[in-house]
Design goal:
The chain is about 0% helix and about 55% strand. The protein is globular. With about 70 residues, the protein is an all-beta fold.
């Protein structure tokens, strides 16, 4: 949604986040965190989830590239 290579980042999930068949976060959830670029990857550490109903929860998550499953975005 917004953000740059270094600083605040806001991202909206376009698809639900699922692990082992269990939905952890629904599509439309907004994640808020901080980005840090380096070594050809953008590392984003997410600290807050804002749900569609407006409620907020603390999270501890990191971005990963779907193409290679490695931490950080290409």
């Amino acid at each position: 949604v917004s953000g740059a290579s270094d600083g605040p980042v806001k991202a909206e999930l376009k698809e639900s986040l699922m692990v082992a068949g269990e939905t952890l976060l629904d599509a439309g959830t907004v994640l808020v965190g901080t980005g840090n670029s380096g070594n050809e990857r953008l590392m984003i550490r997410f600290r807050k989830a804002i749900f569609k109903d407006g409620s907020v929860a603390a999270v501890n998550a990191q971005s990963a590239d779907a193409s290679d499953k490695i931490a950080g975005l290409k």
